[in-house]
């Protein structure tokens, strides 16, 4: 079994994602998490890009102890000097110097001949070796370079002291078969590649970055470069979590694995998403919210009977809690009952049937049913004492230069109606004052949270309130497509709970 080393460039190529700018503190935070994840190398930035990037590389270099910290540099002495300055305090440091080798880049970007590129690459590696034991050379746009010339460059930079040679597919142009063959060909033509790390670096322009990286491993690459969540320039880089899981899950085929602590993947992904603002799509492999979710009844039934029927990765193995049964209108009783057990309910079959029927009605109103929806549903179907008040309507007059005024209509347990209006400091305040008048209860609002607001046409606002009356503290929750309505529902439910705790009779059934 071969061990493939992981070179993480989330903080350099990942930061090249349009709109992403990671501060020094954030880079350190991500780097420390990458260290926990167990990556071999962390490319912390491009020191010559700006004083801020130089500082970030330096901070990461100071803090990270168990991974090699890398800075990118052009084949330019001043770039390499800045990288050296930044990496001075690293426990383990490496310089990553690059120069494009492809005809397109030579002609249009660098305006250099093959001979000039070859000489400059050797000169750069030789210069870097004065400072660093570990030097990586990248032949930018290697995948579109003539194979004869590429082999010549690879051989020359190894001779000059490069300890890693990277063969990037800079523009994501390769097919897996072609890319794997470049590695096979280089291994054949340049025997000294056996003495160094041979690295792959893929971009996702055609959606093949991960497949190409795996093909490179098959072709002889010993290091894979990429980013967490696949962020990066244009369509991004190879997603490291996907590469690692493919190797782990199919080690029978690849006969290779990484040393990553896979249980840190979920946490790393979430941190990178939070600090870069790059949201992970729900259907993203390995780390998407739906990656371990089973929505349809037949799949759910299969997973409950034997998890491997529809699951090839255990969510716990990458740090997620457990497989998630998403309940929706296609779900069946098996999954619903399982969810109830999960949430701590142990109901009789008859009670399950009643709750299941109510659940199906709710499914027609809402695309995805959350655990909280199930809790609300089951709680309301198992009402010990019915609720004292139900919100029938809420209306609001709001203007940015007028005082908000709310009127509410509540139905009491005996069926009678109470209607009240009130002004307040804001919309929510006016609604709550009107409810206070209608219920006649004196309560204080001690906490108010809008916990989640989904997107799209059935966007839901979820409001939690905490009310206090004397020693009693209760919570109430409301969900609605309108946050003000959700606020009102949450408040009324909390008031009902207070009355219930005081033991007052409440002869009206709850509905959902
Ligand atoms: C495939 C990749 O991801 S490569 C990394 C890409 N990342 C970045 O570019 C982010 C950081 N970059 C920067 O901050 C800036 O581009 C800097 C500071 C490096 C350079 O800025 P400037 O001096 O203003 O140059 P500018 O970016 O406009 O142009 C790049 C120059 O470097 C040259 N160049 C490009 N690659 C290399 C290289 N590997 N080695 C030497 N020179 C190179 C270009 O030919 C061009 O030279 P020219 O000015 O003689 O035409
Ligand atoms: C600097 C190099 C390695 C790069 O990012 C690329 O070629 O995509
Ligand atoms: Mg790149």
From TrEMBL:
Its EC number is 2.3.3.13. Pathway: Amino-acid biosynthesis; L-leucine biosynthesis; L-leucine from 3-methyl-2-oxobutanoate: step 1/4. Catalyzes the condensation of the acetyl group of acetyl-CoA with 3-methyl-2-oxobutanoate (2-ketoisovalerate) to form 3-carboxy-3-hydroxy-4-methylpentanoate (2-isopropylmalate). Homodimer. Mn(2+) binds at residues 13, 201, 203, 237. It is an enzyme of class 2 (transferase). This is 2-isopropylmalate synthase. PANTHER family: 2-ISOPROPYLMALATE SYNTHASE 1, CHLOROPLASTIC-RELATED, HOMOCITRATE SYNTHASE-RELATED. HAMAP family: LeuA_type1. Pfam families: HCS_D2 (PF22617), HMGL-like (PF00682), LeuA_dimer (PF08502). Residues 390-512 are annotated as: Regulatory domain. Keywords: Amino-acid biosynthesis, Branched-chain amino acid biosynthesis, Cytoplasm, Leucine biosynthesis, Manganese, Metal-binding, Transferase. Residues 4-266 form the Pyruvate carboxyltransferase domain. The gene is leuA.
């Amino acid at each position: 079994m071969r061990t493939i080393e992981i070179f993480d460039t989330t903080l350099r190529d990942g930061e090249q994602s349009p709109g992403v700018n990671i501060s020094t503190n954030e880079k350190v935070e991500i780097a420390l998490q990458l260290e926990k994840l167990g990556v071999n190398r962390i490319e912390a930035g491009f020191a010559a890009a700006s004083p801020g990037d130089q500082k970030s590389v330096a901070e990461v270099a100071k803090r990270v102890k168990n991974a090699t910290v890398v800075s990118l540099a052009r084949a330019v002495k001043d770039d390499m000097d800045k990288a050296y300055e930044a990496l001075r305090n690293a426990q383990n440091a490496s310089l990553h110097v690059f120069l494009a080798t492809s005809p397109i880049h030579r002609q249009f970007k660098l305006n250099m001949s093959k001979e000039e590129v070859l000489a400059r690459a050797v000169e750069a590696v030789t210069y870097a070796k004065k400072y660093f034991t570990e030097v990586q050379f990248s032949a930018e746009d290697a995948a579109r370079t003539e194979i004869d010339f590429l082999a010549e460059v690879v051989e020359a930079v190894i001779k000059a002291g490069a300890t890693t040679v990277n063969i990037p597919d800079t523009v994501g142009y390769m097919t897996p078969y072609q890319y794997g063959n470049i590695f096979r060909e280089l291994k054949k033509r340049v025997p000294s590649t056996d003495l160094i790390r041979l690295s792959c670096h893929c971009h996702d322009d055609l959606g093949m970055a991960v497949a190409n990286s795996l093909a490179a491993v098959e072709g002889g690459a010993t290091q894979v470069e990429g980013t967490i969540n696949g962020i990066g320039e244009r369509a991004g880089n190879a997603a490291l979590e996907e590469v690692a899981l493919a190797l782990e899950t199919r080690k029978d085929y690849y006969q290779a694995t990484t040393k990553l602590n896979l249980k840190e993947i979920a946490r790393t992904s979430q941190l990178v998403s939070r600090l870069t603002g790059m949201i992970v799509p729900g259907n993203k492999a390995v780390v998407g919210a739906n990656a371990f979710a089973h929505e349809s009844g037949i799949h759910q039934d299969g997973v409950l009977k034997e998890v491997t029927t529809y699951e090839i990765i255990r969510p716990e193995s990458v740090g997620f809690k457990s497989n998630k049964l998403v309940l929706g209108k296609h779900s069946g009783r098996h999954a619903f009952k399982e969810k109830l057990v999960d949430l701590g309910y142990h109901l009789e079959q008859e009670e399950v049937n009643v709750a299941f029927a109510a659940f199906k009605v709710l499914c027609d109103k809402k695309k995805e049913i959350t655990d909280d929806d199930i809790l609300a549903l089951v709680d309301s179907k198992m009402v010990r004492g019915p609720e004292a008040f139900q919100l029938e309507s809420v209306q609001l007059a709001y203007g940015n230069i007028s005082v908000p005024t709310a009127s509410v209509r509540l139905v009491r347990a005996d069926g009678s109606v109470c209607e009240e209006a009130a002004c307040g400091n804001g919309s929510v305040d006016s609604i709550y004052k009107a409810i206070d008048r209608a219920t006649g209860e004196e309560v204080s609002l001690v906490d108010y949270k809008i916990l989640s607001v989904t997107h799209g046409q059935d966007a839901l606002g979820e409001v939690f309130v905490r009310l206090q009356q004397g020693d009693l503290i209760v919570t109430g929750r409301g969900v609605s497509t309108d946050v003000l309505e959700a606020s009102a529902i949450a408040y009324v439910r909390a008031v009902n709970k207070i009355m219930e705790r005081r033991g007052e009779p409440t002869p009206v059934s709850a509905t959902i």
